[in-house]
Write a structure and sequence with these properties.
It is a single chain. By secondary structure, this protein is an alpha/beta fold. It is built from 13 helices and 24 strands. The chain has three domains: 2-30 and 485-554, Immunoglobulins (Immunoglobulin-like, Sandwich), CATH 2.60.40; 47-345, 3-Layer(aba) Sandwich (Alkaline Phosphatase, subunit A), CATH 3.40.720; 354-480, no CATH class. A hairpin with a 3-residue loop joins strand 18 and strand 19 (499-503). The chain starts with a strand and ends with a strand.
């Protein structure tokens, strides 16, 4: 064995004979009970496609009752889908929300609750508050749910945004890039593909602010928490126009699926990664920040129903596994709402959290039942409109700040711009869908307020809310001298002439391998069959740790 200058470890095969009985024992025990690709290929599993837009509330979509802009591709898809009226993110901003989607876990359990902790493009991250880029060490057993799909024979692709608030493990995807597509899979191989459309992101309000509009600003319905004036109407018109751009892109994607003969045998999800792009939407625990559009199309189904049950992003991972015939692992906090392992009961409550946003700290928690929402504000001295430099690029945010400073906001418009906030908020969503009348001090609702307060506290304890701890203390717990702990180099063992066994510690890590010519990493589950003249690379990964050195084995 020797190490080259790049740090990779190289092994050269040494002739070593083992009897057939020993090889058979290793093959049976080394895979940990997982099916081999040849076994799972015999199981018929559905293709699954996720169509994901960014920063959008259902209130902007025609299938949810807003006729401001036509979205023909999505309207056609929704007409053939099951539409959910109450789908929610557990966080009102992208990176924490996406961490819950990919794992089936709450961000506050994972340690991914601060926006954003993992910034590989900027190791300094937020130096003004002492927060460097880091990848939280997630609880044992947590993996991207796509790893389970790949182990079951799926070809998994992501095009192209990840943004999980941790470094993406190599076992997560066969492809994750701007060019990732189902088209590169093997013939007959089922696929799970994600396409993220970024044209509706918050930043596109100012980036596309001077582009032609698809709607007349004068015909827009302005919600009561915004001033009804030209600035508001223009930014809202830009958002509707971005939706129209996104719809065209979705139409092209679905046409590609149809051209490949796959439209009629693929389950299609459409959703947004959290609520709308505007102030009081994104980064807020109100319905405008948490509620998302969601509809699901099943092939050859005549179920085009509207469903009212409460659904959370943490339910997405177990649902996809359930649709693929894979039992969701016990550590997942969500419950499947479709498939072989779907839950027999609906959710009673939805929970959400918000913490640091870029350079500004806060901590809020909420619980929503069918009718009511309770919000706990841990820092009531802080304003709702935290000082976030990124958001100040939006004309509407600048406008709100100016109007507030000049005391020119109306009764409802000034609520979110207040210099502080109450310790508790309580809303009757049936009678107050915009959450404008705080009932926390109303004696008529005392019983419900107490009940929701207690339910929220139980949840905080049950899920081990890491937001109770200072972020710098968490970093000190997870990092050694400011760096993620490095996993040990995997150890190789030749088993018979053409098989290679890999051992790695700790147990909860994932071993991956590939040929030197391949870009995708395979998930190791049993001794690797070595073809003549085959060179392979092997490493170990776990979320929150630095990957091990790469071992190159030359056959």
């Amino acid at each position: 064995m020797f190490k080259n200058l790049s740090g990779s470890v190289f092994y050269k095969k040494i002739p070593n004979q083992y009897n057939l009985f020993f090889l058979t024992a290793i093959l049976l025990s080394g895979c940990g009970g997982k099916e081999s690709p040849s076994e799972v290929s015999e199981v018929q599993r559905p293709n699954i496609l996720w169509v994901v837009c960014e920063d959008q509330s259902p209130e902007f979509f025609p299938m949810y009752g807003d006729s401001t802009v036509r979205l023909p591709a999505l309207e056609k898809l929704a007409d053939q889908s099951i539409l959910f009226q109450n789908a929610y993110s557990p966080a009102p901003v992208c990176a924490p929300a996406r961490s819950s989607i990919i794992t089936g876990m709450y961000p506050i359990t994972l340690g991914t609750h601060n926006m954003r902790c993992y910034t590989p493009w900027n190791p300094q991250n937020q130096p003004e508050i002492g927060v460097q880029s880091y990848s939280p060490v997630v609880p044992e057993g947590v993996r991207p749910f796509t790893q389970y799909l790949r182990e079951a024979g799926y070809y998994c692709t992501n095009n192209s945004k990840e943004d999980y608030n941790f470094a993406t493990p190599p076992a997560a995807w066969d492809e994750s890039s701007d060019s990732a597509t189902w088209r590169n899979r093997k013939e007959g191989q089922p696929f799970f593909s994600v396409f993220n459309f970024t044209v509706t992101h918050e930043s596109r309000i100012w980036v596309n602010g001077n582009e032609p509009l698809s709607v007349d600003p004068a015909k827009i319905n302005v919600p009561p928490y915004f001033p009804d004036d030209p600035v508001t109407r223009h930014d809202m018109a830009v958002n509707y126009s971005n939706l129209a751009r996104m719809d065209q892109q979705v139409g092209e994607l679905l046409q590609n699926l149809e051209d490949d003969g796959l439209l009629d045998n693929t389950i299609i999800f459409f959703y947004s990664d959290h609520g709308g792009p505007f102030p009081r939407h994104k980064r807020a625990l109100y319905e405008t920040g948490l509620k998302v559009p969601l509809f699901v199309k099943f092939p050859d189904s005549e179920d085009f129903s509207i469903r009212n049950e409460l659904v959370s992003f943490i339910d997405f991972a177990p649902t996809v596994l359930s649709l693929a015939g894979i039992e969701p692992p016990e550590h997942m906090q969500g419950k499947a709402f479709f498939g072989e392992y779907h839950s027999e009961t609906n959710r009673e409550y939805l929970y959400a959290a918000s913490d640091r946003f870029d350079e500004s700290y806060d901590r809020l928690r909420s619980v929503r039942s069918e009718r009511f929402k309770y919000i706990k504000n841990y820092y009531p001295e802080k304003p709702y409109a935290l000082s976030i430099s990124y958001r100040m690029n939006m004309p509407l945010m600048q406008h709100l700040m100016e109007l507030s400073q000049n005391n020119q906001l109306g009764e409802y418009e000034r609520l979110w711009m207040a210099t502080g906030k109450p310790e508790e908020e309580f809303y009757d969503l049936m009678n107050d869908p915009y959450e404008l009348e705080n009932l926390a001090g109303n004696p008529e609702y005392e019983e419900e307020i107490n009940r929701h307060r207690e339910i929220l506290e139980i949840w905080i304890n049950d899920v081990n809310d890491l937001g109770r701890f200072n972020e710098l203390e968490l970093m000190e717990e997870w990092l050694v001298d400011g760096k993620s702990q490095k996993l040990p180099t995997p150890q190789l063992e030749i088993v018979y002439e053409d098989s290679l066994k890999v051992n790695a510690a700790p147990y909860d890590a994932t071993i991956v391998w590939r040929s030197k010519e391949s870009k995708a990493w395979n998930i190791y589950s049993q001794p690797i069959h070595m073809d003549p003249d085959m060179d392979i690379q092997i490493k170990v990964s776990r979320i929150g740790y630095e990957e091990s050195d790469v071992v190159t084995f030359q056959n």
